[in-house]
Each structure stands twice: as C-alpha cells, then as structure tokens.
C-alpha cells in the first residue's frame, strides 16, 4: 500500500472544525477534472479537507453525522494503473486517508441520496464541472422525493467558500511552515536567475533556470505561469510569451513562485540585465521600493485591508510627480485616479493554496481588518509604456514591480521572501557575481 506523504491529522482537524461552523450541513466536493497528458492538480478545497489527490473522486462530508466522511473513488484496477498510476480504491481511502467509508464513484448517484435526507444545507461549488452539476441537480430531485411528506423543501445549495474560504484565510502553524518552505525555495530560484542573466540570453532560458531550481528543491509545480519579461515587456502585467532576448541596458522583471505541499509562493523582482541600473531605472526602482517599504512598515493587526493600497498610492503618486511623470496636486491626482496610468493594479492579494487565494477582502462594504495568520502579497509597481509620448523619454519602456509574501503575526509582518534581496546595491552585486 502506497503511503500518503502528509500527516492525515491535518485534514481531520479541518473537518472537525466544520462541526462548529456548519452543523447539520453537508459538503459535496468534486475532484478537479483531469486533462490527459497534462500534470494533475487537485481542486484546492477538495485537497484542503481530504489530502486526497486522485482524479475522478467525490468527497461527501457531513459534520457530526454517521458516516461523517465518505470518499467516492475509482476502483482498484491493475490494468488502468499500468497506464495512469496507483489507485487507493475503497479500502485504501479508509485505511490511509481516514475516510469513514469508501464507495465506488459509479455508485454515487444511488448511495448519496440517503446521506442527504437529513441534511439542512448543501455546500457545493456550481459551475466548475458540467457533468458534476448535472449529477447534483439530479441528486437534489431524488433527495426531495426520498424525504416524502416530511415538510422539508428542496435542499438549498451554498458556495463552499462561504465557510472554507474564511477557514483558509487564517493559516495554521502547519500552513505557515509550508508557505515558508515554498518561499525559501522560490527565493533561491530568483537568486539563481539573477546570477544567470546577461545580455543575449533569452527569457525562456531564464525560465529554465527557475524551473531547474524549483524541481531540484522538490517543488510540486509552478504556483502559476511564470512571467519573465525583459525591457518593455515588463510593462505588460500578465506577460506570457517568455520568448524575447534579454538586451543590454534593459531590466528584467521576473514574477514566479513554486508550489510545495499545495502551498505557493509569489515573488517578483526586477533587475538590470547587464548588472547595473541606469539613472532612469534607478529612479523608477527606488520609487517602487520606497512604496513597498512604507506599506510593509504600516502593516499591523487591525489595519483595514484596503488601507494598504492607500499607502502605496500616496507614495507612488508623490514619486510620479517628483519624476515628472505626473503634474499637479498629489491629492487631486489620487482623487481623480490619474496614477492608474502608471500603477493600474492593486497592492496585492491573499496567498496560500492558490496564488490568488480565497477569502473576503471586504466585509460590510469596508476593507476587512487584517488578522494574525493572514498571508498576502505586497507588490507595488510602476510601468511606463514605451509609446507614452507624455512621459519623459528616458523613462519610456521601463517596468518595475517588487513583490514579497507577508505572513502577518501578532507582533507585525514576517517577510517570508526576505531571502531574495531587493536593495539596489545587493541586487547589482548578485547580478555581477
């Protein structure tokens, strides 16, 4: 029997929390669809509660009921396992993953009905899998008929992220350790890429250095599609081609992070391809670094999430005026959103199992207060389009973003990605090492 590589107690603790958060309810979670010949990645909510990463599976969790945790899985099949790999089967999910019961996936339509008769509310994510949606609609019809003359109406469906999203916002000690490890190995990959880069190499060759380091450190995969953008390409926020040649005198922006234990890092660094920032590049870089430091210095428990953006916008707008990229009163430029020409995005996002992790950013139409255990990015940037005739010529085509991953603690922010330098002289020293 193949053994799971993660302590199953982590997932049981999460399921046990649902007894307090959602008594009388059921969670129906479908595994991610499998794209043949592509690496498989389990649905985050499914994995969060089960630790089980086989495709073609369904988890039914009924907090406080018996059976409480049921996995519908593919059968043991030696012929299929030759092609697609090991399967745990009905017995394996009980003995190795702590399921109360393992049932064949093909029996779901029949077996699940009885398990939902006494449930008050069903948490299921519609719209991710058309086949699964049809199964659930049919299941609700069967369940309503099976309830007979009990007076209970059709079982209502709610988004699992109403519960699981908020659970996932606050990282446990286990999750914090996982994220620190992803950040550590991602930081080392960025350093290797800085050392490797020189005029004449391609963006794709730099990407290869990142991937080599990721997997040398036993990462599961990229946390997201990496961005390796040289020159004016750095002004495209989600640049995806990664096929240009790195030119002398340009900067290279890398936005990349590795995923390990189903938790991802998300780091951006911008550095000179020839090892030395030019004067205009220094000015843009220093403005972005200044804004990021001011945001991180302001972080504390209780701060409203959206106040991070306010700090960044004020700092960047002041710098844009100082550099001559904007003209006018700083407060008026902020009020009229003129800064968005050069800083069009937000300051960051929640981070965890997904690079843009789940969780509400606002409650009661206000930015939610930051709490200890939250993980998020801080990533200000300035991007001057190469064809911006209103900008001083020396700044055109320069794009700079600096992004770190923050774990907020009771005593303040922990920069989990601190291992990859961002001070200008340190960055230049690595590029020339």
Beta-strand percentage range: 15-25%
Shape: globular
What is the CATH topology descriptor of the largest domain?
A: Creatine Amidinohydrolase
Rounded to the nearest angstrom, the radius of gyration is 25 Å
CATH architecture of the largest domain: Alpha-Beta Complex
How many β-strand stretches?
19
CATH class of the largest domain: Alpha Beta
Side by side, the strands of the main sheet go 4-3-2-1-5-6
Which structural class do the helices and strands define? Answer: alpha+beta
Largest sheet: 6 strands, mixed
What's the CATH H-level superfamily name of the largest domain?
Creatinase/methionine aminopeptidase superfamily
User: Unreliable segments (pLDDT under 50, ≥5 consecutive)?
Assistant: none
> How much helix, percentage-wise, in residues?
25-40%
Number of helices: 13
Termini separation (Å)?
A: 48 Å
The number of domains is: 2
Mean pLDDT: 96
